[in-house]
Amino acid sequence: MNINKAKENLKEIGFLELDTPKDLDYVKEILKLKKEKNAVILAHYYQEPAIQDIADFVGDSLQLSYKANEVDADLIVFAGVHFMAETAKILNPNKKVVLPDLNAGCSLAESCEAKDLQAFKDKHPDHLVITYVNTSAEVKAISDICCTSSNAKKIVDSVPLDQPIIFAPDRNLGAWIKKETGRDMLLWDGACVVHEAFSIDKLLKTYNVHPDAKIIAHPESEDHILKTAAYIGSTSGLINYAKTNPAKEFIVATEAGILHEMQKEVPDKKLIPAPAVEDNSCACSECPYMKLNNMKKLYLCMKYELPEIQVPDDIQKKALIPIQRMLEISAK
Ligand code: 13P
Ligand code: SF4
């Protein structure tokens, strides 16, 4: 079933109008459901703090893929966005995978439709296709290898030097990897709305106020932001750097949800979210898709085991190949 049909179905059965009693203790109820249903909750670092705190495992995209591959649960509850839950389903076709809000998409995944990537591939038939996991199952099904920001360099380095590469869909991650590896890759023109929202002017002003701080950035950020960074890495890489670097202050250029886990790891360090161009309630950059999930939706999703992620058999089989290649290369 395609995603729009699945959304219509949820509307028809009244799932989207479901409410909960005002005084419901979500933590207690979710823990109860977890036990009753032998469920596992996997959460990304960009989820709201309450969700991260109740999850069985919190991690970056690569760690979550490994976890999804290992879990021994009847129900996988994915507190993240659609492509992450879909990856878990591709790795576990016989398990039920649910996502609290089916509208939790991703601007990168939306920038790259399978039919457009296929047309691009047809123009460059000698190129190997490496796609970021932030893509649909259909795009993975026509890719050669997947990658995440943690392993993109390793994946590209694993490809013979004379093999031309198409890298999709993130142009910023792609440009950074091109620089890091010296490879001449064809880049798809997609971007993350969250990481392109950082303001270089505001970032430099913040740095002037905190000159001893280290700027650390996710590689989905634009080049002018990355040029200011003392460290560039995935969400887990950024947390690890804040932990191991002796600096006492960090300006963190990624989605603000990461600050929850990072602050737990470095309770006596000062973490400053990198400022966004637009003034908003947090003055930082938040992912509008990740933030669609909340404790109420997590509870309802576990109670009714909806919305369920479905991937057609033929697509699942093809999409599994580049994901498994990625897991094998990164484990080396
Ligand atoms: P990582 O957690 O792999 O760094 O990816 C960040 C991201 O954009 C997830 O949507
Ligand atoms: Fe997609 Fe960016 Fe949100 Fe990650 S932070 S889910 S890449 S839009």
Structure description:
With 332 residues, the protein is an alpha/beta fold. The protein folds into three domains: 3-104 and 290-311, Rossmann fold, CATH 3.40.50; 108-192 and 316-331, NadA-like (Rossmann fold), CATH 3.40.50.10800; 200-273, Rossmann fold, CATH 3.40.50. Helix 2 packs parallel to helix 15 and helix 4 packs parallel to helix 5. The chain has 16 helices and twelve strands. 43% of the residues lie in helices and 14% in strands.
Quick structural overview:
45% of the residues are buried. It is built from 16 helices and twelve strands.
Secondary structure layout plus pairing:
Elements lengths: L2 H10 L13 H11 L2 E6 L4 H6 L2 E3 L1 H10 L4 E5 L2 H10 L4 E3 L8 H4 L3 H10 L4 E5 L4 H5 L3 E3 L4 H6 L7 E4 L2 H11 L3 E3 L12 H10 L4 E4 L5 H4 L4 E2 L2 H10 L4 E5 L4 H8 L4 E4 L21 H10 L8 H19 L1
Parallel strand pairs: 1-2, 1-3, 3-4, 5-6, 5-7, 7-8, 9-10, 9-11, 11-12
Bound molecules: 1,3-dihydroxyacetonephosphate (13P) and iron/sulfur cluster (SF4).
What is the share of helical residues?
Answer: 40-55%
- Count of DSSP-assigned helices: 16
Largest sheet: 4 strands, parallel
- Give the class from helix and strand content and strand pairing: alpha/beta
The name of the CATH architecture of the largest domain is 3-Layer(aba) Sandwich
Strand-and-helix sequence, N→C? HHEHEHEHEHHEHEHEHEHEHEHEHEHH
Whole-number count of domains: 3
The CATH class of the largest domain: Alpha Beta
Kindly, what is the distance between the CA atoms of the first and last residues, rounded to a whole number of angstroms? 36 Å
Could you say which small molecules are bound to this protein?
1,3-dihydroxyacetonephosphate, iron/sulfur cluster
